[in-house]
Write a structure and sequence with these properties.
about 290 residues; 7-stranded parallel sheet; globular
Length: about 290
Amino acid sequence: MLILLKATEIKERQREIEKRGNGETGKQRILSFSDSPCRSFPDSALLFLHGWATDSRVWKYQLEEFSKNHQVITIDLPGHGETDVWFEPTLKPAVEKLLQFTVHDSQFTGFIGIGWSLGGQTLLEVAAKMPGCFKGLVLIGVSPCFTAKRDFLFGQSAGVAKRMLKDMKKNFAGTMERFYPLNFTEDELLSPDARWFIELYKKPRTKPFCDSAVTSLEALLAIDLKDIIPDIKIPALIMHGEKDNVCPVDTGRYLAKNLPDARLEIFKDAGHAPFLTRPKEFNKIVKGFIETL
């Protein structure tokens, strides 16, 4: 298999995780990239792409579980890792980065893409551009259009989103401190996993990260994928929290209705990150979906 490469710094590391099922300890292969790939991957590798203003650490429960039986790849969105930046207010930076993993081999059957929020939007865009890149998609808390419009009433108020963008430019740390808890319901905020998430992203941020977060939020306000949704023919699993405050659950229902081959799983009383707050239930559903591909 041949990977389309870009001459940038490579980050790859091997992690040890505990095999909780039988008490044994062993090494599992997890490839984590802040930048471009440097090797080829087997068919049906799971490719995880996180959401806005976070990074691949949010997948802790999925990496531990799925790396037991699958090759697992995590990619940091541009500007969310260590080296690159989100260089313009469109999806282009994320799409270009993901396309570096495109495989040019007639025997390749495609990755299984698993994306959260902005990461899921990136997967949709790439799936439309390169139909053979994925054999299936898992989309968590994803909206084809983040802000509400006349022909899409399910998104966030454009006024609220623009006000957040304005606040970020004035007081980045304070605005993000208010944003991160919105990923959870009031009940979820009492859980250890929600507290872990919020504490994880409280640390001071570098200027490249802050600039990329602002630019990628500008992209979110402009993204509208509704026209490409009917062209994505591969199987898709839509997973959405019933009480998602970031991307309301009706955005997930819209995707499930308009993607040609989709099924919808709604997590009752869950917020924007059910993979973190309900990991066992989430992982079980994803495993079942993968078995059908």
